[in-house]
Amino acid sequence: MKLGKFSVFVILCFFLNFNHSKAEKKYSTNLNSLENKSIIVDIKALDKITAKIFDLSIKIGDEKIFGNLKIKPLKCKNTNINSLIDTVAYLQVKDTSVKTNDQVFVFNGWTFASNPSLRPLDHPIYDLWLIGCRSI
User: Fold this and answer.
1) Could you report the per-residue pLDDT of 41-76, keeping only the tens digit for each?
2) CA atoms lying within 13 Å on the CB side of residue 61
3) Predicted local distance difference test score (pLDDT) of residue 82
4) pLDDT tens, residue by residue, 15-35
5) Distance CA 48, CA 50 (A)
6) DSSP state, 35?
7) CA–CA separation, 97 vs 94, rounded Å?
8) CB of 44 closer than 8 Å to CB of 129
9) Each residue of 68-108: pLDDT tens digit?
10) Residue 57 to residue 122: CA distance in whole angstroms
11) Do 50 and 69 meet the contact criterion of CB atoms below 8 Å apart?
């Protein structure tokens, strides 16, 4: 029996979706298991005006003020994907100098220690980049 192009496409889509959902469950389980532990996120912060670099250590769920920025890490994880060790963190950053009722995050997403330019904070005065995370 000869398979048509559509049948091969459907089988391929099913196979790719199945493997993706298994990997997604595996990594989301690893991130959720860390919520009960005390984790510190280490961040380097640059003030572009003064050209000074600061080391910030923030506990998961806590907020820290740096200049006009309010930084809140929600998750941090050391990963080992395809034999590449990396640190990823989910950060929420607000600019407190903006005084509007509909204040939004200037950054809200995952950032990577090995490649901070992949999801950079776009701010005219400050730069932040992830160094790592550690449990206490």
Assistant:
1) 999 999 999 999 999 999 999 999 999 899 999 999
2) 6
3) 76
4) 445 444 444 444 444 544 445
5) 6
6) G
7) 9
8) yes
9) 899 999 999 888 777 778 889 999 999 888 776 666 788 88
10) 21
11) no
Picking from 123, 21, 40, the residue whose alpha carbon sits closest to that of residue 89 is: 40
Number of residues assigned to the chain: 136
The amino acid occupying position 72 is K
Residue 11 — left, alpha, or beta (φ > 0 → left; ψ -120 to 50 → alpha)?
Answer: alpha
Tell which residue, 117, 96, 118, 120, has the closest CA to residue 107. 120
The token pair that represents 124 in the structure block: 């005219």
According to DSSP, residue 89 is labeled E
What is the spatial distance between Cα 45 and Cα 32, in angstroms, rounded to a whole number?
27
